[in-house]
Amino acid sequence: MIRPNVDLNLKVAVVAPDGNFVSYCGMWYDPEVGYAVVEPVATDPDYRRMGLGKAAVLEGIKRVGKLGAKTAWWTLLSSSIIVLAFVHSLPLLYGKRS
Prior knowledge:
The protein is α+β, with helices and mostly antiparallel strands. It has helices spanning 52-67, 81-88, and strands spanning 11-15, 21-30, 35-43, 71-73. The protein has a four-stranded mixed β-sheet, covered by helices on one side.
């Protein structure tokens, strides 16, 4: 994980009271291009629908925003209704590339 564009401060993990990692959001930011990439995002199925993934994504976006990112790209590899509902629950602006 030691590469020029890897900043471990942009990797957000949510830890349960028992010490297990239950949700994660990885963020990548390149100041030369001025945008961030959200990837990957995952939540343990036993901890879904608690807002943990949402909190991890929003914290990651907050962190890259403080570094100067004006845009964050997120490519969805699933069209499942659960994934789409999660993404649309976030208070973000959406765009679609053609």
